[in-house]
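hey so i finally got around to running the thing on that chain from the lab meeting. sorry it took forever, my laptop kept dying and i had to restart like 3 times. anyway pasting the input first so we r on the same page abt which one it is
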Amino acid sequence: MTAAHAKKLWTWVGSITVASVLASLAITWLIMYPDVQPIGIWISIVAPLAIAPVASYVMGRMWIRIEGLKSEAEAAAEDALSANRQLQDVLKRQQLLFSVLGHEIRTPASSLMMMLDEPGYLDQTENLTIARRSAHHLIAVLDDMRALANPDLALKGTLAIASPGQVIRDAVDSQQIFASKQGIFIEFDLPDDFDLMAEFNTQILRQVAINLVRNCLLHSQASALKVTGHKVGDDPAAFEVRFADNGKGISLSERSTLFEAFARGKTKSEGLGLGLHLCRDFLRKYLDGDLALDDTPGGGATFVVKFAVQAAAEFPDTGETEPEYDFAGKLVLLVEDNRTIRLVTKLQLEKLGASVEEAETGRIGLKMASSGGYDLVLLDLNLPEVKGDDVVRRLRGDGNHVAVIGVTAATMTEDAMRFVEAGADAVLEKPLRVKSLLRAMGELRKAV
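ok and heres what got predicted. didnt touch it at all, straight out
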């Protein structure tokens, strides 16, 4: 029986029941009072029939209300079950996250601490390389966490004009030293089609290539990695790149969850299990592409990257080289509350020939910068007393146009936008790299 039929049955049964009860009462009344006038007899007969439609309408409305309440209760119960499932999933992922973080951050941090505690250990070049690798691992873990926490901002970057082939080549080359130390030979062979100059998110493509090479170095147990590619169809700006290793491959049981967040499979190597998940997510969102797994003939795994770029029409050759900047004789105000970072940054600037004055708080930095005479103010965002963006805002409000570069641990988040909106000339990422600083200052000089 359908709901509509049930409703009609309910209405008619209710109507008949009400009419029957009223008719029974009327008959009983007539029996008890036989001397009643004829008009009373007619009222006794007609009243139940007249009331029956009203009763039918009332019973119908009651049915509708009951059904409505029932539907609302069922929807509320389903929402509660769905919310509970989501909560359980979040708690499970959170537990896994903290478990992985406890290992992935503590391990390199403990290694660095042991190296620092061992007298003379870091005097050897080889040991310095190990320490640097541990530091890079820590930064990579934090970058992955930042990307997971805010995927719409992390690695989003800005569009740039470049060659996809050169971006991938540079990314792969940056991992050659680590590959050679592990005895892994990387063969790189992209056709000239990839040298097309185009506008696209270079940062994302570079990070995808680095992550896939690192994935091979850490988990594949391979001796060789081959990077090849070709155009897709007739579109000159759509590409496919294959990262094929000859390692142990990926079992069928691992493939179903391979691209899920925190999926680490059976590997014992470092990592959060986020690399492949983030690569595929960013390719789909920002490069109109995808990431898939294929088998390598003869054994191993092949990761297939597809992406598309916007071909640029014209690129006039100006003959200009990458902008550079000479810090010799320049006076820099460094505003940083972390003593270690302040010390290292000061050493970097002094090696470039700059004179450096320091401030530990935003209040002191603002007072010093307001006095004038500086060629550059380099400051952190989260300063005590006065935040870095507020320092910039006050300087600009007072008509002070000194060059200001903000430094933050996350250049693709709201933190960086705070600097930009306050009037900073550029924003660089921690840890500060000399090449990035020189490029930023060169661009500022060029824009003047």
